[in-house]
Amino acid sequence: MYILENISGTSNIKIKKSNYISIITDKTELSRKILEGFYNYFSEKRLSSEEKVLITDYFTGEKEQISSKYPIYIENSEIDFEVELGSKSILHQRILGYFKQKFPIEPVFLTLNTLMDNFFLEDVSEKFKSEFTIYSNYKIDFEFSSFGPSDLIKKINIKYKLDEDEQNLNQISNFEKIKLKLSMYEIGDIIKNREKIYIFYYPERLLTISEIKKLKLFLKDLTIKSSTVILATNSKYLLGDNLEEINIIKDQKLLNFQKIDILRQKYLENYPKLEEWDYIEKRLVYLLKNNIFENFEDLRITNKLKNDIDEIFFKSYEDIFIAVFYLKQIGISYNLDITYDDRCVFSNYIKKNF
Q1: Nearest Cα residue to 26 out of 332, 296, 318
Q2: Whole-angstrom distance, CA of residue 106 vs CA of residue 92
Q3: Contacts 24+ apart (CB under 8 A), 344-347
Q4: Which of 76, 153, 249, 266 has the most neighbouring CB atoms within 10 Å?
């Protein structure tokens, strides 16, 4: 488990350590601070002591190693900008760096600028500056802005093709743009043999549901390649696939920090019938994604059909037990409006204990 110390405006925050880290918070601004904390720490960004974040291991107290890791921060609002050749885009910087590394462009530009400044402009100035103003009291002079490597990149156009069919940027899905942007970050030798940490700020924004599902599969595939994915999300499709991958943060505290071994023991000791933990955990994760995660405050749980959008409907007493038992463990308040059935062991447990 990580501890992020000195997150701006917050106390220290715990985050469970995993190859796929999904974060749900009650405030999007807190999500941004957490993700920026990860990025700034692993990129060794120079910050003041008041802004500098420290990340340690919860169990050993040791600082997390930085040198072998390379963080990449993705925010969808910038996605179009980054897959073009704007002067501040990642692709522009990568190509410019490559030019400087591979070609002796500085002497070429020095010669060109000298020719323009000393010869061409001098002739132009002498020939035209008086003729241009023969009917005016104004005088003019010509000035020359020197050529640089960025001027060379301005002459480059990007053409995107799919199966040999050329497409403009507006025809490319935002999901594909995310993959293009990641590829652009990974150009060059600097990140070879380094563990990559992909950090996403609500990546579901601007994506369709089908694209979000594809993104989840893509991100999971990245974790197989010894990389780490950290994301803040409000999409059930991007939540982790097990409890270790899900972080529920409310009032600046990680609610579900309890170790899985302890949680498993509590479930098995209290489960009204004999059951395997794998089944219970899979069912719990499903319920968190599909019934609970969008609202973690004063949940209203029922098994009565009322057409009330503010209530969470469960058809099964077993599902109610699994969900509410977890809410009790992590300290989230709830209200029950249940019709009980004395023939069901789960109903009897709920009636007696919840």
Answers
A1: 296
A2: 18
A3: 344/317, 345/272, 345/273, 346/272, 346/316, 346/317, 346/318, 346/320, 346/321, 347/317
A4: 249
- Are 322 and 280 a contacting pair, CB within 8 Å? yes
Higher pLDDT, 334 or 296: 334
Query: Which regions of 76-203 does DSSP assign to beta strands (E)?
Result: 160-162, 165-167, 195-201
Closest CA to 248 of 25, 7, 29: 25
Q: pLDDT tens, 179-207?
A: 888 887 776 656 667 789 999 999 998 89
Average pLDDT over residues 289-300: 79
Six token digits for residue 47: 């910050």
Which residues are paired to 25 by β-bridges? 249
pLDDT, tens digit, 9 for 90 and up, residues 164-184 = 777 777 788 889 888 888 887
Sheet holding 253-254, edge to edge: 69-75, 195-201, 228-232, 20-25, 246-250, 253-254
- Picking from 59, 62, 7, the residue whose alpha carbon sits closest to that of residue 30 is 7
Please tell me the distance from the alpha carbon of residue 136 to that of residue 134, in angstroms, as a whole number: 6
Backbone angles phi and psi of 232, in degrees to 5 = -100, 135
**Helices 277-287/317-330 angle, 10° precision:** 80
- Give which of 212, 205, 90, 100 is closest to 158, Cα–Cα: 90
Predicted confidence (pLDDT) per residue in 306-333, tens digit: 777 778 899 999 999 999 999 999 998 8
Measured between its terminal Cα atoms, the distance across the chain in Å is 30
Mean of per-residue pLDDT scores for the chain: 85
Sign for the pseudo-dihedral over CA of 321, 327, 331, 337: negative
Enter the DSSP assignment of 63: B
